[in-house]
Amino acid sequence: MKEIKRTSALLFILLLFYPLAAQETDFSGKWELNPEKTQLGELPEIILEISQTEAVIHYRKTVKESRNEWVTQMSFSTDGKEGTYTDSRGYQLKCSCAFRDGHLIVSYQSRQRRKGKWVILNIEEVHSLSADGKTLSIAHSEKWDDKGGKWPKPMVFDKLTPDAEAVQMRMRKSE
Q1: At CA 90, angle to CA 75 and CA 138, rounded to 5?
Q2: 54: Cβ contacts below 8 Å, ≥ 6 apart
Q3: CA separation, residue 153 to residues 29, 81, 174 (Å)
Q4: Does some domain include residue 11?
Q5: What is the pTM of this model?
Q6: Is position 5 within any domain?
Q7: Are strands 117-129 and 135-144 parallel, antiparallel or unpaired?
Q8: What is the pLDDT of residues 45-66, one digit of tens each?
């Protein structure tokens, strides 16, 4: 009987503190896609801005191509509850996030054209930080209808320091 009580108490303590331990990794920051490290061919400029608190993660992705710019903003509850966001075309789509083994798992839907028809993609992106916190890697997979796949290599982002952000702003203004 004592062993059951001891095991129950230990299990209770683990369950109480596990969510806090899972969030030890802080993904907050402004991140810029590094095409050389990513090695996935021609990708547009991508900037991620992540703001993380104990209860909420605010996630903003800006994708810039030569003629277009798309901004996606999502706010996630860190307890894994499903929410919604509005995409650039005004559609309400599902999104959620969770922490698993020191990784941030972002799951969301995206409405895109595939082979001439509009489909809803179910996307999962596994975010991993380098030990020094300066590099963010994202493994991307997607599914739609009965199809899907995983990108062969992760996208790699460098954390922008305040000095690097100032240089980047000056470069954009001169364009």
Answers
A1: 45
A2: 23, 78
A3: 22, 28, 33
A4: no
A5: 0.78
A6: no
A7: antiparallel
A8: 999 999 999 999 999 999 999 8
